[in-house]
Amino acid sequence: MLVPVRVGILTSGGDCPGLNAVIRGAVMKGDRIYGVEFLGIRDGFRGLVDDDIRPLPRHDVRGLSRQGGTILGTSRIGPFAEGAGGSARVREVMERHEMDAIIAVGGEGTLTVARMLNDDGIPIVGVPKTIDNDLSATDYTFGFDTAVSIATESIDRLRTTAESHSRCMVVEVMGRHVGWIALHSGLAGGAHAILIPEQPVSMEQICAWVDAARDRGRAPLVVVAEGFKPEGTEIVRDALDGFGRPRLGGVGEWLGPIIEEQTGIETRVMTLGHLQRGGVPTSYDRVLATRFGLAAIDAVMDAKWGHMVSLRGIDIETVPLHDATRDLKSVPQSRWDEAAVLFG
């Protein structure tokens, strides 16, 4: 079995609090315990396509756990895009730099690419990253706790101005296909309605919840995930993202005027957007991300190619990338029913 001595690491897809903690954990342990040399791959898989790679010594990762963003940069460019060269190009660049293995840190798209590269014989290990917490095969992903904390603080701040003016406040948070951020921040912030992609809710019901809160002397608060489909219609912007998907956003602006018209309550809308991705990670995310980085280099040294590190309870394990990318982890009916008792 080949013992890796030069390992490349990349961060791909959307940025996320905790990425730098993963990098630091992997490099610190790799250098101190295994004597591994690291290479930083710039801007995700783009660095493997364009051969944009630099040394990543231990000195460069000092103090990184508290820093947001990623020192390696990120992008949504993949090696299987037209003209990118696919696995053959990745293998060529790895050989040029004498790179023995890759640690790929990212969400569903990144880990799917990692799985495809592994299927073609590229030695690669994955680390799950997404603020949406929508990856199956892991209980939590780092970045989620930070996003929920930011959304909850924002909701707390918006409530004070809403209550001062007796207004209804609609807060739009991230969540393209799943509503974990909306559910957790809405529960933490005491929302009177939480709207998520997994659960169809009629405008009649939404307005009934708003009316009920107002009738009790409260300023109604509605938390909505960007992927919620009012009346079964997905609200999109006139643009595509890096994967060719319509950009979501605007469902809050769609809901606000209708709520005001049907309830007679003055309504304001706030879209938190990329605020949820920015800033320093919470202590929970710093610890989880660091543990993922430590476990990732262990997986590399154990040649667990095609696997991803995963949180199970309080333990870090490894699972096949095929399992991790097979299904999205959506909000189950039981969690929705649990929260819905508090609505209105």
From TrEMBL:
Site residues (Important for substrate specificity), renumbered to this chain: 109
Binding site for ATP: 14, 76-77, 107-110
Active site: 132
Protein's cellular compartments: Cytoplasm
InterPro entries: ATP_PFK, ATP_PFK_prok-type, Phosphofructokinase_CS, Phosphofructokinase_dom, Phosphofructokinase_III, PKF_sf
Residues given in the record as Mg(2+) binding sites: 108
Family: Belongs to the phosphofructokinase type A (PFKA) family. Mixed-substrate PFK group III subfamily.
Function field: Catalyzes the phosphorylation of D-fructose 6-phosphate to fructose 1,6-bisphosphate by ATP, the first committing step of glycolysis.
Oligomeric and partner information: Homodimer or homotetramer.
Name this protein carries in UniProt: ATP-dependent 6-phosphofructokinase
Name of the coding gene: pfkA
